[in-house]
Write a structure and sequence with these properties.
Distance between the termini: 115 Å
Largest sheet: 5 strands, antiparallel
Helix content: 55-70%
Shape: elongated
Strand content: 15-25%
Number of strands: 10
Number of domains: 3
Structural class: alpha+beta
Order of helices and strands: HHHHHHHHEEEEHEEHEEHEE
């Protein structure tokens, strides 16, 4: 007996699906090559800061980025070659895995950004790094990444996440009402961070008599180490936004030294007159501490063996910025001219050294 073998009349080849798979594979290969060559391109084209950020944030997570890309390509390929109704369970599983890995990748980026990059940037710029704010920033970034991942997954799989959130709205309002004091403290922490009336290690004073060094600025409260007692005072942030804060560290004090040379011996009575004229001429200069103005007289001889008296005048100028300090220095120069004219009216001749000597002096706390 002769057996007959039946051959299919035609073999159908879906070229469009093959092209789709090929295109997806090419795109995946290109993405991998770009990720590998990206550091060299960044160093050649982009600034040093961006290159440094890439090395700290992106480079350590190359393997995780590759996993995310592989899962994404697998899901896209699956949807391109097979109807969704046949593979929806596998697709949902891949999509869930992709969402989890992408969320984890985003959290790793946030961790490197806040725990490494910002701290190193603060050290390079000689700024004080507030670890509490970095923790808060990292928490907010992770929360945003998680919420976005849930919303994207829900929207791509026809899950009405906004309806679920709306159904929980009443409970959310109740929780917010119960935690309004905590929320007020959290908002106070944000205000302190934006306004920055003080930073860590500043010495501050409050209207209730509290005075000390700021040890930390948290999300809900600020810790102050009391001067003298050494006790730790914890103050809610919303209270600090409603009171006057005196920042002693932020103030600047410049010591201005002025020398007057009298080409004769000045007796005690004339010294008292000179001291009175100097104090009266500078009493109306805003920003000068009149109580700390110091005037000393010293008798000596010059190179010609002539008896002379030299007066050293020390002023303390207070200010909070470069513009205010420059303005007060100019006012002090005008006051020096008034001193010169007034002493000449009393017939007291002298020479004044130019320019005055300015020395930064720390605030005494």
């Amino acid at each position: 007996m002769t057996e007959t073998i039946q051959i299919p009349e035609q073999i159908v080849i879906d070229l469009s699906k093959i092209l789709q798979i090929f295109a997806i594979a090419v795109i995946g290969i290109v993405v991998v090559i770009v990720i590998r060559k990206l550091p060299e391109l960044i160093e050649r084209i982009i600034s040093t800061e961006i290159s440094e950020a890439y090395k700290i944030i992106i480079s350590p997570n190359k393997s995780l980025i590759g996993v995310v890309i592989a899962i994404a390509i697998s899901e896209i390929t699956l949807l391109a070659v097979t109807p969704y109704s046949q593979v929806y369970i596998i697709e949902i599983t891949l999509s869930l895995i992709l969402t989890i890995t992408t969320t984890w990748l985003g959290s790793q980026f946030a961790k490197k950004f806040f725990d490494v990059y910002l701290i190193e940037a603060a050290f390079r710029s000689d700024q004080k790094a507030n670890s509490d704010l970095f923790v808060v920033g990292k928490f907010i970034a992770n929360f945003i990444i998680l919420v976005l991942a849930i919303i994207i997954f829900a929207q791509t799989h026809q899950v009405n996440v906004f309806g679920i959130i709306a159904s929980l709205g009443v409970g959310g309002v109740a929780v917010a009402f119960a935690a309004q004091n905590t929320l007020s403290q959290l908002l106070g922490g944000i205000v302190l961070y934006v306004d920055r009336p003080f930073v860590v290690d500043d010495y501050i004073g409050l209207p209730d008599g509290t005075f000390g060094r700021v040890e930390s600025i948290g999300l809900r409260s600020t810790k102050i180490r009391s001067s003298g007692k050494g006790t730790l005072i914890i103050i809610p942030n919303n209270s600090l936004t409603q009171v006057n804060i005196e920042n002693f560290t932020a103030a600047k004090k410049v010591m201005s030294i002025l020398y007057l040379t009298f080409y004769r011996q000045v007796d005690i009575e004339e010294q008292a007159l000179i001291r009175q004229v100097i104090l009266a001429s500078t009493s109306d200069v805003f920003g000068i501490e009149p109580r700390n103005t110091d005037i000393t007289f010293k008798n000596s001889q010059n190179s010609n063996l002539q008896d002379i008296t030299q007066a050293q005048i020390t002023f303390f100028i207070l200010g909070s910025g470069k513009v205010s300090m420059d303005l007060r220095r100019q006012m002090l120069d005008n006051a020096s001219q008034r001193i010169t004219l007034k002493l000449k009216e009393y017939g007291i001749a002298f020479d004044i050294e130019q320019p005055s000597i300015y020395v930064d002096s720390p605030i005494t706390v």
